[in-house]
C-alpha cells in the first residue's frame, strides 16, 4: 500500500514474500526480498532463549546492542533510506 501511494519501499516491504519463499525452502530469495527481516528472523531464537534464561557469555554483546533503543532508531531509518536509493549496491535491498 505504501509503495503504491509513494513509489518508495517501506521497511517491511517484501516480508510476506520473503516468508513465503522461506517456507518453500528458498532462503536466497527470502533474503533478497527483505534482508533486514531475514537477519532478524535468524537471530530471533537466540533472543528468545536469552529471555527464557539461557544467557551465555558470548551473547552479551549482541544483546547489549539489540536491546538498545538507539540502535533501532538509527538502523530502521538508515535501512529505509538505503533500500530506496537507485544506485547499485542499494538496489539489492529492494524487493
TrEMBL record:
Pfam families: DUF2752
Species: Pseudoxanthomonas gei
Protein name according to UniProt: DUF2752 domain-containing protein
Source organism, top-level taxon: Bacteria
Transmembrane segments: 31-50, 62-82
Keywords assigned by UniProt, alphabetized: Membrane, Transmembrane, Transmembrane helix
